[in-house]
Amino acid sequence: RIRHYRWEVKYEFKSQDCFRKLVITINGRTPGPSIRAQQGDTVIVDLKNSLLTENVAIHWHGIRQIGTPWADGTEGVTQCPILPGDTFRYMFVVDRAGTYMYHAHYGMQREAGLYGSLRVALPDGEVEPFTYDHDRSIILNDWYHKSAYEQAAGLSSVPFVWVGDPQSLLIQGRGRFNCSTPGIEAGKCNATNPECSPYVLTVVPGKTYRLRIGSLTALAALSFEIEGHNMTVVEADGHYVEPFIVKNLFIYSGETYSVLITANQDPSRNYWAVSKMVSRNNSVPTGLAIFNYYPNHPKRSPPTVPPSGPFWGAIEPRVNQSLAIKSHPNYIHPVPQTSDRVIILLNTQNRINGSVKWSINNVSFSLPHTPYLISLKHDLLHTFEQTPPPDVINGYQTYDINTVAPNVNATSSNSLYRLKFNTTVDIILQNANTLNVNNSETHPWHLHGHDFWVVGYGSGKFNVSEDPKRYNLVDPIMKNTVPVHPYGWTALRFVADNPGVWAFHCHIESHFFMGMGAVFEEGIEKVTKLPSSIMGCGDTKRFIRP
Ligand SMILES: O=C1O[C@H]([C@@H](O)CO)C(O)=C1O
């Protein structure tokens, strides 16, 4: 079946957290319309760019784009940006049921509000390995009052201006900013604006809800909980997990989970649903929604103080949750027991020409002006640097991940990794100290075009000969986004079997902007004729005939 959507993207003034600012909407909304499809459907989105003075591109997060690598929506990698006034057609097959998302993948537009959810149902006659009465989706986000431009300009200037903490946390597009904060321009903030009234999730006592939770934060790692209710985690990034129960769910930008919640508490009142920023010391107020027991009034505030959530700095519970996520025993995708290539990606914060950057193996990633997919398919190899980045950094064995590096300089490059088609690749994400003493951050890494097996996590420095012996090669979960915890490492395995060019990057918007990413090419010779609609920038203009 075909699911056809017509979207118009434009700037509008909105008050998501009571503070009025310019946001990017789809058909007047942020989050944008939810895409609902069934496994095997073809999704068509005709996207009209009405931003007037700004390009756009949308990425279908978690959709592997098998056979349609040009529809991945990653500006600079798989397509040229969509110009103002143009309408671009995204067309792709959703080949696997699960919980996915979409969002802008151009500059820092995602944090301007261009995102939404994409839910793929099972084919007729198939059932999930769990039961529930109702199915709901929410997206968690953080929210900044400064424009994406101001932030991007700050991040690329000397002296460097960091984006700082978000002003609020949104649950399904609604947050609360304290309008009495000193310095707020008169008329900019209105605490009674219905646009910022809390999101309400209404439940019927006794019923069980599948809540699909996604995070598209620009920066924040989150803990999500519903006061007084446990949650059973049953799905992660489109894969069934061996169910486990949590009181609070840690969720990183780019991840999705399904949890089951039974409305089994005192039905005479409402409860708070809370998102809290963790992993960085912060004073961002928690995001609040109302878990409304029918027939109580949906706007009635719960009689209790919202739960304050876990301590921001506790790493252990977050690592423990990562370790708890395993494949559901009846849905194991067997993982290859050996790999053909091991790439160790050392994550470092660096300084280049006086500005702060992030690098992988000392290479701070920058996008070329001509998208790789087109360059590689049409032999425009002069459009990016041909020396590939290293599989392991020189001196990795002796690199001290626990201190600020003695030499913090890195180089900037738009080179990419070329993978042999159908080979099995291990990626070790190795975390390290930042430019600040005693500091290492959490980075959620997202791979386009694939799911990978998460074969291991560890603390400290990855040991090339010993740690692989402890990999989970029995029932590892498959995901498309995974955290690397402070001072730790995360090991992934995937098969390079999807012809195309795929971004792999930290899903923190400013970190990718600062160079925290890489690109993989595989099977470019198997990619069929590229649609001319993705062309029009850089050296691709030569393919457009009058
Ligand atoms: O990339 C980052 O830069 C700042 C800080 O390290 C430098 O100001 C920060 O907290 C980041 O995550």
UniProtKB/TrEMBL annotation:
Q: What is its EC number?
A: 1.10.3.3
Q: What is its main location?
A: secreted
Its cofactor is: Cu cation
CDD domains given for it?
Answer: CuRO_3_AAO
Q: Which UniProt keywords apply?
A: Copper, Disulfide bond, Glycoprotein, Metal-binding, Oxidoreductase, Repeat, Secreted, Signal
Q: Name one GO cellular component term.
A: extracellular region
Return the InterPro entries for the record.
Answer: Cu-oxidase-like_N, Cu-oxidase_2nd, Cu-oxidase_C, Cu-oxidase_fam, Cu_oxidase_CS, Cu_oxidase_Cu_BS, Cupredoxin, CuRO_3_AAO
In the record, the note on similarity to other proteins reads: Belongs to the multicopper oxidase family.
The protein depicted here goes by the name L-ascorbate oxidase
Organism source for this protein? Lactuca saligna (Willowleaf lettuce)
Upper lineage: Eukaryota, Viridiplantae, Streptophyta, Embryophyta, Tracheophyta
